[in-house]
Structure formats: structure tokens, C-alpha cells
């Protein structure tokens, strides 16, 4: 049975709430932070334990580096002011390029140190540069390799840090901790229920974390693994500990990279929204698709447009299928992309948009190929910069019921595969069903 306190297992998508669920169930009421909060993301490690040449924070999922997911998790939080990303000197250009490519707006890059504490300290010092009034009241520190952090938990950490001076996430221990003798025999074991795993994020008032790093020893800088400990030892600040969700787990080994990718994919493949434009043919196709795709484990909502109440779908981290009937115009999908781009700050993960072009036999006989493949390619390239993956499917409406049913099943299969796999190679392609 999957335990929700096992940090080595991917969290079930069910514990990774949709944006809507987060808003209604988890967001603390009146969640406004009225003091300045900034963030340090240490990302200066080499990721030795993954065994890969690329440091794990720069490994890509769905065409986007892990660090960008983490940055966006913070950037979308309106009350977070600045984000300092600390990277090894040789990766400053790479990080700067990532910031430009994924249009991060609150980020400054700072060179790191030879250990995690040295890197974090550089980030804290960078936040203290300039006028005193520009300094944050609270600094949140979060490993760049923990991409699934949510606003509601950051809020709790920030508030507790302001009140207490320091606060940190904890999780129950998975294994019992034992001490060994020098000869490799059991010396004693700790009572597991009494201990907790210390995770991230952690929050500190600026003064506490600044002083802790001013006062700590070279040995702390070299071998220490715990910022909360420095706050206690050097500032006498007892951190408030808050149990965090299992999704806070740290990418440490190669298998964690696969787990992170699978969480991202699974979380986003559960739902899609079909926009019919109100045409009867499109509604018939959408209804048939709803049944067929449902059997393939993706739930479809069918709506005529994104106007009024339906605009809420734009904030749902959903995937979209825009059905166009006849004509070669991509204008409906262009409008959809514009709407999605307008809310892009709220989108943590890449979205799939499928342009489904339903053509009648008559139309084909008149105009031959209904859509220019180059047009959808161009549109897809622009959308990809916004982390939207645009695919096209062409479907011909047959009057033969059996043929039509087969086509719908094929479309359902392709749709499901595109939403689940998010293949970069197929972005901008016009597939035939
Ligand atoms: N000199 C260092 C070492 C680590 N980190 C960062 O601290 C976080 C947590 O550390 P860890 O998981 O230990 O990362 P690595 O040191 O990269 O991994 P490994 O120990 O396997 O080499 C990571 O985001 C990592 O990039 C850092 O900023 N500067
Ligand atoms: O849990 C933590 C702090 O409490 C850190 O994430 C942890 O110390 C990271 O470093 P490492 O992977 O080198 O132990």
C-alpha cells in the first residue's frame, strides 16, 4: 500500500491538488501577507547522487528544466517579491538563459559556493544588498530540486517565520534511525515516533538567518545540513515546525527525476475541456469523444466557448481541445492560445492544446487539403514559448456510421496519447485520424 509518508515514492496525483481545489480548500482565508517576503533557491550543487553529468536542477521535463518549475511555483505567489537563485559560477549563463526563455520575472541569479550552506549564505547576502528598507522581513529558503511546493504551505511557513523567527517543514520518518558502532554493529536505535525528517521550505526573519550565517563556524559551512539548527545555535531561535505534504520531497536520485516527470504528466492528463463553438457537428463529435476518451482515463468537459462562467476553465490547469468545423481558419485556436497566454503566470506545468479540425467530405472535394501545415507549425512554435504544446488532428466526417465510429475511436486514442505523453516531437504536427 502506498504510504503518504514515503519520500521515495511519487506522490499520487490525488494529493497534488488542482489549482481550483487549492483555491477553495487549502488557501487560508484572507491570505494576504502584509510584510515583504523573498526567496532563496539554492541550486549550486552537482547532483552527484543521480549519477548524471547534468546537475539535476537543469534536467528537463517536457522540455523545461526542473529549476524553472520550482521558480514558477514561487513566482506565481503574488506576495513573494524577489527570488534569488544561487547557482555554481559556471552555470550563471545557463540560468540566465533559462530565466529569459521561460520569462521569469522576479529572479536574480547569484553565484554559489562549494557547499549548500555557502550557497544559501550568498543568496541571503544578495537579498540584503541595497537600502535597509528594501530588505525582506522574511526569507524563505527552498531547495531548487523540490518543485511541488504550494502557496498555502508557503503562506504558513512565512507567517510562522515572522512570528517565531524561524519555521520549517517536517515529515514523519519512513525508516527507523539507528546508530552503529565503529565495527558496524547496532549500537542503539531512536524511537521513531519522537523524530521527524526535516524538509524544505524553511522560513526565517532576515535578521535571524543573516546573523546565523555571520556567527556560524567554518565547520558549519562545510558539513552542516540544517539551517534551522544554525538559527537555534547562533540566534537562540526555536523554529516552529509544520508538517508539510508528501509532495515536498527532494529529487535526490535518478529515480526521483522519473518520479517528478510522472507526477507532472499524470497530474495534467486527468482532465481536458472540449470547446465546440456551438456547432451541432462539433457537439456530436465532442459527445462521442467524451465516451471514448473517458474509457481511456481522461475526463472531458464539453463547453461551447470560454465566455462568462466558462472562463474559469482557463484557470483550471486543464488541457484543451478546440473543435473547428470546416474552413481552414485557425482563428478559434489562436484566440484560445491568447486567452491561455494571458493567464500563463498561473500555469505551473505545460498545457496541451489540440486543434481538432472536423471537415466534411464536401469541403475536401472542393478545397483539397483543408489546412496549411506550416500555419499550425508557426502557431505551435510561438505557443511553446509559453509552455503550451499545440497539436493538430484532422478528422473527416464520414456518412458511413461504422467508418465514423472508427474515426472517433482513433481520435480518442490520439488525443489521449497526446495529453499523456506530451511528445515534443509531435508539437505543431497535423495528425490524420
Ligand atoms: N554547493 C551547493 C550544493 C548544493 N546546493 C543545492 O542544495 C540543494 C539540496 O542539495 P542536494 O540534494 O544535496 O543537491 P546536490 O548537492 O546537487 O546533490 P548531491 O549531494 O547528490 O551532489 C540542491 O538544490 C542543490 O543544488 C547548492 O546550492 N550549493
Ligand atoms: O533537508 C534539508 C534541510 O533540512 C535539506 O534539503 C538537505 O539538508 C539537503 O541536503 P542533502 O541532500 O545534502 O542532505
UniProtKB/TrEMBL annotation:
Pfam families: IspD, ISPD_C. The keyword Nucleotidyltransferase applies. Its EC number is 2.7.7.40. This is D-ribitol-5-phosphate cytidylyltransferase. It is an enzyme of class 2 (transferase). Cytidylyltransferase required for protein O-linked mannosylation. Catalyzes the formation of CDP-ribitol nucleotide sugar from D-ribitol 5-phosphate. CDP-ribitol is a substrate of FKTN during the biosynthesis of the phosphorylated O-mannosyl trisaccharide (N-acetylgalactosamine-beta-3-N-acetylglucosamine-beta-4-(phosphate-6-)mannose), a carbohydrate structure present in alpha-dystroglycan (DAG1), which is required for binding laminin G-like domain-containing extracellular proteins with high affinity. Residues 1-11 have a biased composition (Basic and acidic residues). One of its GO terms (molecular function) is D-ribitol-5-phosphate cytidylyltransferase activity. GO terms for biological process: isoprenoid biosynthetic process; protein O-linked glycosylation via mannose. Residues 272-411 form the D-ribitol-5-phosphate cytidylyltransferase C-terminal domain. It is found in: Cytoplasm, Cytosol. It catalyses: D-ribose 5-phosphate + CTP + H(+) = CDP-D-ribose + diphosphate; D-ribulose 5-phosphate + CTP + H(+) = CDP-D-ribulose + diphosphate; D-ribitol 5-phosphate + CTP + H(+) = CDP-L-ribitol + diphosphate. Belongs to the IspD/TarI cytidylyltransferase family. IspD subfamily. Its main location: cytoplasm. Pathway: Protein modification; protein glycosylation. Homodimer. Residues 1-29 are annotated as: Disordered. It comes from the Eukaryota. Keywords: Cytoplasm, Nucleotidyltransferase, Transferase. InterPro entries: IspD/TarI, ISPD_C, ISPD_synthase_CS, Nucleotide-diphossugar_trans. One of its GO terms (cellular component) is cytosol.
Amino acid at each position: 500500500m502506498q504510504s503518504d509518508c514515503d519520500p521515495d515514492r511519487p506522490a499520487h496525483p490525488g494529493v497534488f491538488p488542482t489549482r481550483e481545489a487549492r483555491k477553495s480548500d487549502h488557501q487560508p482565508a484572507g491570505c494576504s501577507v502584509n510584510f515583504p517576503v523573498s526567496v532563496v533557491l539554492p541550486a549550486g550543487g552537482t547532483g552527484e547522487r543521480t549519477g548524471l553529468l547534468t546537475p539535476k536542477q537543469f534536467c528537463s521535463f517536457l522540455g523545461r528544466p526542473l529549476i524553472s518549475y520550482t521558480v514558477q511555483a514561487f513566482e506565481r505567489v503574488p506576495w513573494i517579491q524577489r527570488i534569488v537563485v544561487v547557482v555554481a559560477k559556471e552555470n550563471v549563463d545557463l540560468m540566465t538563459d533559462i530565466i529569459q526563455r521561460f520569462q521569469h520575472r522576479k529572479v536574480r541569479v547569484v553565484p554559489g559556493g562549494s557547499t549548500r550552506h555557502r550557497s544559501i549564505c550568498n543568496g541571503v547576502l544578495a537579498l540584503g544588498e541595497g537600502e535597509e528598507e528594501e530588505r525582506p522581513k522574511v526569507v524563505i529558503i527552498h531547495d531548487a530540486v523540490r518543485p511541488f511546493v504550494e502557496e498555502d504551505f508557503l503562506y504558513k511557513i512565512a507567517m510562522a517565520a515572522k512570528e517565531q523567527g524561524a519555521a520549517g517543514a517536517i515529515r514523519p520518518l519512513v525508516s527507523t534511525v539507528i546508530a552503529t558502532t565503529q565495527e558496524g554493529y547496532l549500537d542503539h536505535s531512536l524511537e521513531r515516533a519522537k523524530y521527524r525528517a526535516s524538509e524544505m521550505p524553511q522560513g526565517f526573519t532576515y535578521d535571524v538567518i543573516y546573523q546565523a550565517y555571520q556567527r556560524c563556524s567554518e565547520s558549519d559551512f562545510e558539513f552542516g545540513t540544517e539551517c534551522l539548527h544554525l538559527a537555534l545555535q547562533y540566534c537562540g531561535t526555536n523554529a516552529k515546525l509544520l508538517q508539510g505534504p508528501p509532495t515536498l520531497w527532494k529529487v535526490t536520485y535518478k529515480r526521483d527525476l522519473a518520479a517528478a516527470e510522472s507526477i507532472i504528466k499524470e497530474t495534467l492528463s486527468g482532465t481536458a475541456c472540449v470547446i465546440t463553438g456551438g456547432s451541432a457537428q462539433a457537439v456530436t463529435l465532442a459527445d462521442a469523444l467524451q465516451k471514448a476518451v473517458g474509457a481511456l482515463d481522461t475526463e472531458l468537459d464539453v463547453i461551447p466557448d470560454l465566455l462568462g462562467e466558462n472562463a474559469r476553465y482557463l484557470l483550471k490547469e486543464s488541457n484543451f481541445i478546440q473543435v473547428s468545423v470546416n474552413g481552414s481558419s485557425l482563428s478559434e485556436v489562436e484566440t484560445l492560445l491568447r486567452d491561455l497566454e494571458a493567464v500563463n503566470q498561473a500555469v505551473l506545468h505545460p498545457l496541451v492544446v489540440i486543434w481538432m479540425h472536423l471537415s466534411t467530405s464536401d469541403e475536401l472535394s472542393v478545397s483539397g487539403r483543408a489546412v496549411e501545415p506550416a500555419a499550425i507549425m508557426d502557431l505551435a512554435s510561438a505557443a511553446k514559448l509559453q509552455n503550451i504544446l499545440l497539436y493538430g488532428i484532422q478528422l473527416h466526417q464520414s456518412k458511413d456510421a461504422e467508418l465514423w465510429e472508427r474515426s472517433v475511436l482513433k481520435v480518442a486514442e490520439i488525443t489521449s496519447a497526446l495529453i499523456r505523453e506530451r511528445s515534443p516531437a509531435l508539437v505543431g504536427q497535423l495528425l490524420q485520424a
